[in-house]
Structure formats: C-alpha cells, structure tokens
Amino acid sequence: MRKISFWLFIFAFTASLARGQDAATQQLIDEINGRIQNLTEMQATQGRKIADLEKQISDLSDKLNQPAANNSASADDLKKLAEQVRDLAKKQQDDNDLIVKELEKLGKGGGISTTSHKPATVSTENPTPTAGGPQKGYYYTIQEKDTLIAIAKAYSTELKIKLTADQIVAANPGLNPKSLIVGKKIFIPGPSAK
Q1: Could you report how far apart the first and last alpha carbons of the chain are, in Å?
Q2: Which of 33, 67, 95, 148 has its CA 20 to 30 A from that of 140?
Q3: 17 CA to centre of own chain
Q4: What kind and span of H or E run contains 185?
Q5: Integer Cα distance of 88 and 107 in angstroms
Q6: Mean pLDDT of 176-193
Q7: Virtual CA dihedral for 193, 177, 107, 167, nearest 10 degrees?
Q8: Cross-sheet strand order for the sheet of 185-189
Q9: Which residue ranges make up each domain of the chain?
Q10: pTM higher than 0.90 for the full model?
C-alpha cells in the first residue's frame, strides 16, 4: 500500500507540475504570438511605405525622362522684362525725389534748423565725446516722429556726407534710439577733418 500511495503521490505531484508548466508554456506561447502579430503588422506597414517610395521614385524618374519644356525666354520676353525694370527704376527715382523734397520741407519748416547747418565746435560742456578734442558738427532738435535713421538720411542728403544712426548714437552718449525725446538737442557729427 505504501508503494501505491507513493506512486499516487508522485503521479499527483507530476501532474500538478505538468499543469503549471502547461500554463506557463501557454502564456509564453501567447506572448510569442502577440509579438509575431506585431512584427507582421510592422512588416505590412514597412511594405506599404516601400511601395509609396517606389511610386515616388518612379514618378520622379518619369519627370526626368520627359523632354524639357521650353525654358528659354524669347526676345520679346526680354524686351518686356527690360521695360518693366526701367519702369521700376523710374518709380524708384521718383520716390527718391519725393523723399528729398519732403526732407527739404522739413529742413525749411523747422525739422532741421538753419543754425544746425552751420558747423559748430563742440566744447567740453556739451554732451559729446571729447576724447579727441572738440568735434565739428551740428545741433539738431528732435521733432515728433523723428527717427535716427531719418535724421541721418536727411543730413546725409542735405550735406552730401555719409552719416549713420550709429554715428549719431556714438556722438550722443546716453541717447536711446528707441525713445527719442521731442525737443531734446542732439549733436550730429560733421564730416571728419582730414
């Protein structure tokens, strides 16, 4: 009887181990099947992408193999283009003339005072750099809606000198180009002495 119970015990133990292994094996099989399914879907997606790329390559190849359209311009086209360029250049010149006239009006009407056109020697009392001694230049009273670029352009046009907004800022320490104070006098550097 002992032998039978021993064999029954071994059989029951082996059966429980087999069932545990079957469950673990089944779980492992299910996991592998899920991974295979994911890989199959990814392969199908890659296949579609490859097919799309092949189609794009084919389309581009067809475009390259087509005879080129007439990309050259005719003499009439060039004449029309030249005429348009001349028209634009004339309009630009007219605009420049209008700007100069407006600046001259500003100069006569108080935008640039007549005293500011006379060279002035800057003394050390004025808010201008004195590292190299007195400078020649002009005083200008800031008007409403003035910008340093417009002021520099007006002086450049009027006096036929090369003047930039940066030069005005350098000649007026503490001047904030973004918030000019109406009525404040600033120093406009004149042409360099040679």
Answers
A1: 130
A2: 95
A3: 71
A4: strand 185-189
A5: 28
A6: 84
A7: 10
A8: 120-121, 136-141, 185-189
A9: 114-189
A10: no
Amino acid letter, residue 12: A
Rounded to whole angstroms, the maximal C-alpha distance in the chain is 134
Report the DSSP beta bridge partners of residue 139. Answer: 187
Q: How far apart are CA 112 and CA 151, in angstroms?
A: 9
As given in the structure block, the two tokens for residue 62 are 């067809």
Q: Find the helix or strand (DSSP H, E) in which 186 lies.
A: strand 185-189
* Tokens linked to 147: 């910008």
Region class of 145: left (phi > 0), else alpha (psi between -120 and 50), else beta:
left
69 band by pLDDT with thresholds 50, 70 and 90? low
28 or 50: whose pLDDT is higher?
A: 50
pLDDT tens column, 102-132: 877 776 665 444 334 333 333 233 444 444 4
Confidence of residue 141 (pLDDT cuts 50, 70, 90): very high
Q: Could you tell me the CATH superfamily of domain 114-189?
A: LysM domain (3.10.350.10)
φ/ψ of 146, rounded to 5, equals: -75, 150
What letter represents residue 94's amino acid?
Answer: D
Residue tagged 């003394």 (tokens): 123
The angle subtended at Cα 160 by Cα 154 and Cα 165, nearest 5°, is: 45
